[in-house]
Amino acid sequence: MPSDMPDSKTGVLTDHMPYQDLTKAYQSLIGSYQYLASTYWPELSTAAMVLGHHSSKLEAKHMAAAKHVMRYLYGTKNYVLMFDPEKTIDDTVNSHIRAAAAFMDADWALDSTTRLSISGYAIYFMGSLVGWSSVRQRVIALSSTEAEYYAIVHAAKQVLWFRLFLMTSGIEIPGPFPMLIDNKSAIAQASSPAISARSKHIHIKYLFIKNYFGDGTLSPTWVSSSINVADNFTKLLSFPLFDRHRTALGIVPSP
User: Fold this and answer.
1) What is the pLDDT of residues 47-84, one digit of tens each?
2) Three-state DSSP class for residue 249
3) What is the pLDDT of residues 118-130, one digit of tens each?
4) Residue 229: how many other CB atoms lie within 10 Å
5) CA 128 to CA 83: how far, in whole Å?
């Protein structure tokens, strides 16, 4: 039976006793999902990333979750990633993505075993999705603001590369590149000239972002969580919100 969403509580899976017999088949399947997530099916990114974490300590429930993704793929086999600068989502989202922008998000301490957070971003150019990512952060964030800060750095590095790529291709984006963030505390901390005692341990990342925010290369802008499409790359969502973000990503039924 087809499924409406790729996630089936994959964000809360844990490692226990291995389910050895199907390990190789599982790893091959997840490898395929990770390839699809990086090319044709961006909305698979979170599920593929979470499931991949359990490749060496497999249980029956992990294989069941992997099969759930397959049902989602079957149910969306007629969907395509559309590059269409004229597509209409809604007025609020349209106003952000018509030229160039990057949405970013973090899910703090998602992994109940390691307490590592998730970083995600979605980069748009000319109204179309051109880059996306869903990854585990490498260090434990001590607060949701810190997790968001790491997510900003993760997105900023890709945005800077993309902007350089456009420049070498003869395309220049006028003005700062908008960085759309739904955490006001992270924006305030990144925009402040001072370094608080609570943020000294992320000093290098702070200076990295501060430099590009300060010189006008990047511009932090608050955006409501309800339209932050990067949520699809960090957490499990209700179907209505997942579907809304999926459409905003340009993943739609083939015309």
Assistant:
1) 999 999 888 788 888 889 999 999 999 999 999 998 87
2) coil
3) 999 999 998 889 9
4) 30
5) 5
b/e code 189-205 from CB counts within 10 Å (16+ = b): bbeeeeeeeebeebeeb
Under 8 Å between Cβ of 58 and 22: yes
Give residue for tokens 């505390």. Answer: 185
Nearest CA among 97, 92, 91, 89 for reference residue 127: 97
Sign of CA dihedral 30, 36, 39, 42: negative
What pTM was estimated for this model as a whole?
0.85
Handedness of CA 17, 21, 25, 27 (dihedral sign): positive
- State the Cα–Cα distance between residues 216 and 246, nearest whole angstrom: 30
Domains defined along the chain, listed by start: 10-77 (no CATH), 84-253 (3.30.420.10)
At a CB cut-off of 8 Å and minimum separation 6, what does 187 contact? Answer: 181, 220, 221, 222
Helices (H), 99-224: 144-168, 184-191, 203-214
Q: Answer whether 251's CB lies under 8 Å from 43's CB.
A: yes
